[in-house]
Amino acid sequence: MNHKEIRKQILGLTTQYYTERFANEKFEKGKTRVNYAGRVFDEKELVNLVDAALDFWLTEGRYSEAFAEKISELLGISNVILVNSGSSANLAAFSALTSEKLGDKRLKPGDEVISAAASFPSTVTPIIQNNMIPVFVDVDIPTYNIDINMMEKAISEKTRCIFLAHTLGNPFDINAVMKLAKEYNLWVIEDNCDAFGSKYRGKYTGTFGHISTISFYPAHHITTGEGGAVLTNDEQLAKIIKSFRDWGRDCYCAGGENNTCGKRFSQQFGTLPFGYDHKYVYSEIGYNLKMTDMQAAIGAAQIDKLPMFCKKRKENFNRYNQIFEKYSDFLILPEATEHSDPAWFSYIVSVKEDAPFKRDQIAKYLNDNLIETRNLFGGNIVRQPAFIGKDFRIAEHLNNSDYIMNNTFFLGTYPGITREKLDYFESTLDNFIRKY
Asked: Could you count the other beta carbons within 10 Å of the beta carbon of residue 128?
């Protein structure tokens, strides 16, 4: 057989391997763990992955181009820059706003950036890593998104940017945020890592801010294993983001291409010799944050499943609502932001102050019965060890963030949560509540 015939045989066997290895996993009550998140895939992801491996094109290639184009077409965003994680996406997005190429609009050390205190660290750490000052605003319960009234009061003459996540897939009040951004001339970065597929006023989240980010970690709406993306409709920002992703180099040629600008050996940069090879000119203090083509191959198959994945997440969320409504005297149930249609990352619950049990008690009971729970990430982020002693400002108070830190947990809504797993969860929850 020639190599094409061998390849065809390998890919056919890969499909068979998926069926034998992954297609018939069974759930057993009390024996199989109910994970809060996980990868959901079929033979298409496995075939794409093996196909990319057989190409042995290890950096960005044909699958990266296809994956980015699918995201671009879905969201209507002209520039999709693939990176190696959602955290890297946040770092590249925020760092891009420090570029001297932005002139007076660039962010500088000492500038203030509005963010939420109840958040995941990588929404905040790029602010500190770039020597700027996070301004932490409290969140609303039961949406778990930023308190808009408090946010407006927190804006000062030093405020230059808003950097917010759509909490657990529930969009923040985008109209209000964008109105403030326009009024005070602020940059907006949408951390869309937990909300890929959510909508606000009929439009996908991640399409409103100047820049947005996505994560493809296995817990998220689609996965490439590790991986993420930075999105923007601004052509200048796109070039800067690519530069920060690609070691800080000034050249924007795609991998394997040369002289896209037509001026590779005829420009002056800094104090370099005239005509210095543009491929080795570095105009930003950058990183290497690129995605591999094998990761993108998985994503190119996963994104076709996004509508189905989002539908399943919504169905699971609604089923949790039915289960928890029986116990609303003890528990605060989540609410979607007005005018939004969340593709819920998870189902979030807060234990009321006068409930006869504590968050840690119910979480321990569920975990003892192999049902995973998670806290709302860092709780009140300013109380985390890494943030103690750092330069930040608190807007008014963080009472709800403290409450969340002590009383809130969430459960999985991902498509691997089946009806039988939810039924098992309901009976386990009933058994716990009966004790009180």
From this structure: 17
- What are the tens digits of pLDDT across the range 345-369? 999 999 999 999 999 999 999 999 9
* Residue 13: both structure tokens together: 């066997």
Task: List where CATH 3.90.1150.10 sits in the chain.
Answer: 304-434
- Give the closest residue to 107 by CA, choosing from 87, 83, 82, 126: 126
From residue 377, how far is each of 42, 225, 320, 365 by CA, in Å? Answer: 30, 20, 20, 20
Sequence-ordered list of residues with C-beta below 8 angstroms from that of 428, at least 6 positions apart, any chain: 365, 366, 369, 371
Q: Please, are residues 250 and 285 in contact by the beta-carbon 8 Å criterion?
A: no
Out of 3.90.180.10, 3.40.50.150, 1.10.530.10, 3.40.640.10, the CATH code matching 58-303 is 3.40.640.10
Out of 166, 210, 220, 221, pick the active-site residue: 220
Tokens 């504590």 locate to 358
Angle at 242 between CA 222 and CA 272, to 5 degrees: 160
Separate counts of helices (H) and strands (E) for the chain:
13, 14
Mean pLDDT along residues 405-415? 98
| Contact between residue 251 and residue 96 where contact means Cβ atoms under 8 Å apart | no
Q: Is the per-residue pLDDT at 255 higher than 90?
A: no
166 is catalytic: no
Contact 217, 223 (CB under 8 A): yes
The pLDDT tens digits of the residues spanning 183-202 come to 999 999 999 999 999 999 99
Q: Look at residue 257 in the predicted model and tell me its pLDDT.
A: 78
Dihedral of alpha carbons 173, 99, 293, 37, sign:
negative
For CATH 3.40.640.10, the residue range(s) in the chain are 58-303
CATH, domain range 304-434: 3.90.1150.10
> Is the model's pLDDT at 256 over the cut of 90?
no
Q: Is 377 helix (H, G, I), strand (E, B) or coil?
A: coil
- In the block, tokens 């940059």 appear at 187
**Which candidate, 283, 305, 244, places its Cα nearest to that of 94?**
244
Q: Checking phi first, is residue 344 left (phi over 0); if not, alpha (psi -120 to 50) or beta?
A: beta
**Contacts with 406 (C-beta within 8 Å, 6 or more apart), sequence order:** 359, 379
* Cα 377 from Cα 120, distance rounded (Å): 5
Beta bridge pairs of residue 229: 82, 214
